Amino acid sequence: DATPWSPQLALTNPVGPFSNPQLGISQGIPQPPVFPPPKNTAFPQPVLVVSEAPDGTYRTPRVYNWNFTVEHQVAKDWLARVAYVGSRANHVFIAEELNPAVYTPGSTLSTDNRRPFKGFTNVSIADQAGLARFNGLEASLEKAFSHGLTLRANYTWSKSYDDLPFTWGAQGPMAAQSWTFPYYFPNADMMDRGPSLYDRRQRFVGTYVWQIPFPANAHRLLRYTLGGWQLTGLATFQSGSPMTI
After folding, report:
1. Strand pairing of 78-97 and 120-146?
2. How many CA atoms are closer than 13 Å to the CA of 223, on its beta-carbon side?
3. Residue 8, Cβ density class (10 Å: 0-12 exposed, 13-18 middle, ≥19 buried)
């Protein structure tokens, strides 16, 4: 989205009407670029680079899910369940910044002048190094509907972590929205690995439905107005979201 790939013409305070906005503009509409660009094509500096992984090998992002569950009827109308649930995502698309500005305390240099590769702005490269992991223990207790009452209680103790940037999604390269950790550091991706944005270590959800009892032999008017009511409720308690500095 930059010259010479995408020539652009900006009109500021055009003198012509909407039917002829180029009135008084000498250069006219830019012509479509020639591909590939000729060797003498001028790239305006600093150059923005958006690229793909040089090996050209792309895999389909994959998500694996598995669980192991044990259920037991503890009483006539009661069921207990305990499960281990796991998930992992591999080959998730990420964008890495290959030309991050180097923080220099007290420096008055511009962002581009503090980059390792001068003459360039962002150098974004897309690859599939992203990953995500989830492991959780899920326990539940259920009471089947009987005597006008049904109950369900669920508790989850889990951990989810990934190495995607904060609030990041699965997407390709783009300018100025890439990872900024020092990619040239050993194990640099570990610096951005931590709890997922949606990670909640503990979560409890309880729900119930109670059909309020009413005498069956009551007067018809009372049965129609005061009978057949039910009381329901849902309660949720969970840990807070992870904090990032």
Report:
1. antiparallel
2. 6
3. exposed
Under 8 Å between Cβ of 94 and 127: yes
**Tokens read off for 171:** 């997407």
Estimate to the nearest angstrom the gap between the alpha carbon of 44 and the chain centroid: 34
Residue 223's beta-bridge partner residues?
none
d(C-alpha 141, C-alpha 208), whole Å: 12
Q: What does each of the 245 residues of the chain score in pLDDT, given as a tens digit?
A: 566 666 666 777 778 888 887 787 766 666 666 777 788 877 778 888 888 888 878 888 899 999 999 999 998 999 999 999 999 999 888 778 888 888 889 999 998 899 999 889 888 888 787 889 999 999 999 999 998 899 999 999 999 998 876 556 555 556 556 666 667 777 777 777 888 888 999 999 999 999 988 777 777 777 777 777 889 999 999 999 887 66
11 contacts 25 by C-beta, under 8 angstroms? yes
Q: Which residues of 37-73 are buried (b: 16+ CB within 10 A; e: fewer)?
A: eeeeeeeeebebbbeeeeeeeeeeeeeeeeeeeeeee
**β-pairing verdict for 78-97 and 62-73:** antiparallel
Give the residue from 31, 24, 26, 25 showing the smallest Cα distance to 8: 31
Query: H or E stretch including 221?
Result: helix 220-226
232 DSSP β-pair partners:
209
